[in-house]
Amino acid sequence: MIRDETAGRAAGVTKALLELYEVITHEFLAPNLREQFDTWQLLLRARNEGRLFSKIIWPKDPEMKEQVKRLHLLLTVKDSAANIPKNLEARRRLQFFTNSLFMDMPAAKPVSEMIPFSVFTPYYSETVLYSMSELLVENEDGVSILFYLQKIYPDEWANFLERIGRGESSEDDFKDSPTDTLELRFWVSYRGQTLARTVRGMMYYRRALMLQSYLEKRYLGGIEDANSAAEYIDTQGYELSPDARAQADIKFTYVVSCQIYGQQKQMKKQEAADIALLLQRNEALRVAFIHEEDGASGKEYYSKLVKADVHGRDQVVGHESSDN
To answer: Between the ranges 97-111, 162-176, 214-228, where is the mean pLDDT highest?
Structure first.
């Protein structure tokens, strides 16, 4: 049914249905019901003469063909327990996702037709990124934040070390590499109540839209039109696709309203440097803040919206002034 009808394929379908019929009647039916089936002379004669399921008619209904394609995919894609994540949080997310597939939802429109939306996160002076000193300082029980996270997330810690190309490393081993030190700060901050964690979570919207747009562009007739199971997960390069990136930026905007970011920059506070780092790591992130200047008639205040330019510096993309 997923291909054009031929005599050979029809014979194969007939054989498969006969085998399924035999399995059901001999393995699943109760003995009394099986005996009742055997008393049906018309059915018994057709089976003995080989006429059972011999006149297969290929369904022409597009919706039926679509369901058969999906069933074929589920039955032919092979997986093993080795591919199941060890991490409990990863399993929980996968379980939530698979359960959502059985929800009765209307068909989603393509990304190009969805309504654009914006997300705003208010921020004042909360922690943006943990510093190395905060990671290593010990509490009254002699336990540091880093040590605690290493013990409650041992698999994630091992994965982190593998990603940055290190084996079993201690805190002192990171001092020789500013890059690894920064990655360590992000790893810990993503597991605490920090602005960095919030930004990463919100930016997943953009990644999801890029991926969906990329797949819709690649498989115009639907993902099920791919010829092999390997093509279904061929998402390499979606984050580098100009079309997918542009589509996601049109549909999704994320702004963090850092009220005193301008003051923090002037005072050269660590929070300002960390916010600038988030801007550099997330090209679609925008930061809104109040900029204060001394004017001829007193204080002047400006509402600014900035992003990171190609050199990592703040680039103003929105500006509005008002006198106090």
So the answer is: 97-111
Range of the domain at 20: 7-60
> What does the alpha-carbon distance between residue 203 and residue 288 come to, in Å, rounded to a whole number?
17
- The answer to whether residue 312 is domain-embedded is yes
Token pair, residue 180, equals 């690894």
Give domain status of residue 246, yes or no. Answer: yes
* pLDDT tens per residue, range 213-268: 998 887 765 544 444 444 455 667 788 889 999 999 999 999 999 999 999 999 99
Is 42 inside a domain boundary?
yes
- Apex 276 CA angle, 270 and 280, nearest 5: 140
Q: Using the CB atoms, write b or e for 292-317: b if 16+ within 10 Å.
A: eeeeeeeeeeeebbbbbeeeeebeee
Q: Show which of 18, 33, 60 is a domain's final residue.
A: 60
| DSSP codes of every residue in 283-304 | TTEEEEEEEEEEETTEEEEEEE
What does pTM read for this prediction?
0.70
